[in-house]
Amino acid sequence: MIIINARVPGYQGLQQVRVDGEGKISAIAPMADMAQNAATLDVTGDWLSLAGVDLQINGALGLAFPDLTLGDSQKLQQICQFLGDQGIDGFLPTLVTTSIEKIQQSLAVIADFLTTASDQAGMAQILGVHLEGPFLHPQKRGAHPQEYLLPLNLENVKQVLGDYGKLVKVMTLAPELDETGEAISHLRSLGITVSLGHSQATAAEAEEAFALGASMVTHAFNAMPGLHHRQPGLLGAAITHPQVRCGVIADGQHVCPTMLQILLQASRYEAGLFLVSDALAPLGLGDGIYPWDQRKIEVKQGTARLADGTLAGTTLPLLVGVQNLVEWGLCEIESAIALATESPRHAIGLPGIGVGQPANLLRWHWHEDISKLSWQRLQFNG
Hints:
The chain starts with a strand and ends with a strand. α5 (203-211) packs across α6 and α8 (318-327) packs antiparallel against α9. The strands form 5 sheets. Strands 6, 9, 10, 11, 12, 13, 14, 15 and 16 form a 9-stranded parallel sheet that branches. By secondary structure, it is an alpha/beta fold. It has 2 domains: 2-48 and 356-378, Urease, subunit C, domain 1; 51-347, TIM Barrel. The protein contains 10 helices and 22 strands. Helices cover 25% and strands 26% of the residues.
C-alpha cells in the first residue's frame, strides 16, 4: 500500500508513505518518486502522523492508576483499548503522590500486566510509568496529599522504586529538595527521565538539575512560580535550555490561551514542548462527582477540581489539545500534531515517524468551512 499526497510532520511538501506487508512504514518519499502499479490511498493533502503518546495520564474509565489492585488487569486492558480508540499509541500511567505501599502495589500490577496482557490491534501500549511525586515541594503540591510527601534523598528514592526501577520511565520531582544532587544522578543512572515540577526552584537550582541530567518539566506554568522579569525561575530556565522539553496541558483551563501562545513561541513549539492530557480517572465518563484517593473531585465540562476549588486535572483526551491549539489559532497544524505525536516520543528517547515504525497512523483533516480539525485512524496489518 502507498499513501499518496500526504503532509507529514518534519517533511517538506507532499509525500508518499509506503506501508509493507507487515504493516510497517517502508519509505517516506516525495511524490515525484512515485512508484507505479501499486495500491494507493490518496489523502488529498491531509496530514499523516503516528498516533499520540501521552506521558502524563492518571487514569481512565473510572480507574485511578495509584489505586490499582491485582484484580484490575481486565480494566487495564479496557483502558488500553479505550485510549487506542482515542488515537493514542502509547502512554505512561502516572502515579501521583500516595503511600509507598500503594506505589509499590500499582507498579507490581502494571509489571504483571505487561507480561500477561494480550496485544490487540489498535490498543495503546504502556511504555513505562511516570511517578509524579512523592518528592514535591509542599508549597507547590497542588492536589497532592501532603501527608505522603517525602524528603528527596537517595534512600527514599530507592525505597520508592523498590524492584521496579526498570519500569519507571519518568519521575517528577522538585530539584531544590535534592541538596546533594545524588538523587537526580541516581535516577539518570537507571535510565529514568527526570522531570522538574511541583517546585519552587530558582533558575539557578533548575540549571543545576539540568546539568545533572534532568531534561523535562511537568505541566509548564502549573505548580511552579510564574515567569517574572527579574526571577525567571524553573520555567524560565527550562524555556531557554535547548535540551529541555516542557509538558503542557492545552485544555484552556490549566494555562490560558494567551500564555500558551507565549510559551509556544518562546519554546520553539515542538522543539521545546509536548502536550499531555493530565487526565484523571473519570476520562471517558461524564461530568459528575467522583472519588479521588480519600477525597472527591467534581468534573464540569472536562475540568476536575477538589471541593476547595483546587485544580486537580482534566478529563479531556490528549488529541483535544491538538485541536484546541489549531482552532484557537495558536500554531500551525503541523506543529500542533507534532506536539502530541513526535515531541513526546523524543522526550523519552523514542523515534518519531520514519522507516520501520508500525504504520498505526492518524489522518488529520482541516475543515475549512467550520474551522475544525478532525482525525481518524489508518491501520495497516499484514
